[in-house]
Predict the structure of Probable metal-nicotianamine transporter YSL7.
Amino acid sequence: SVEKVFSSKEVPPWQKQLTLRAFVVSFVLGVLFTFIVMKLNLTTGIIPSLNVSAGLLGFFFVKTWTKLLEKSGMLRQPFTRQENTVIQTCVVASSGIAFSGGFGNYLFGMSEVVAKQSTEANNAQNIKNPTLGWMIGFLFVVSFLGLFSVVPLRKIMIIDFKLIYPSGTATAHLINSFHTPQGAKLAKKQVRALGKFFSFS
């Protein structure tokens, strides 16, 4: 098991997992993935699971960053798999809001501009011009609804029923394998393949 490689390594405290470089990379990848999600949402209406690609690109960027710092002798903290998980979580959460927030379908479908294109039910009751303040409030409700529903669902589905989630499990195995000597080489190959995929989509 890949986990045996990390059995002797101590898990860093949460303060060392939430680093500035993790948030910088998360922000850049979050913006990139949000554009990809919006394009897919407006053209096909569905999006693939982005967990694996977010974990992979997060590893690639921070590993490159830390290697450059290591060569210059300025590396203070090594890149950990926990930090990689923080990046992947932030990227998937931010790009997920673009999809579940309805920016590609119902959020702007309520507006007066879209309503004028239809002859059915075109009245004040069926029109809502979303303002910035209203959209921020709406996104908070959408985001926190998921957060509050996760706590009871975690107990039932993960602890009691011990269900394995394919996307999350695959991402965890992938992030673990990246942080092994052989995994770093594999990650470079996968980044090239991912670049080709995004250039075609």
The longest helix spans residues 132-160. DSSP finds nine helices and no strands in the chain.
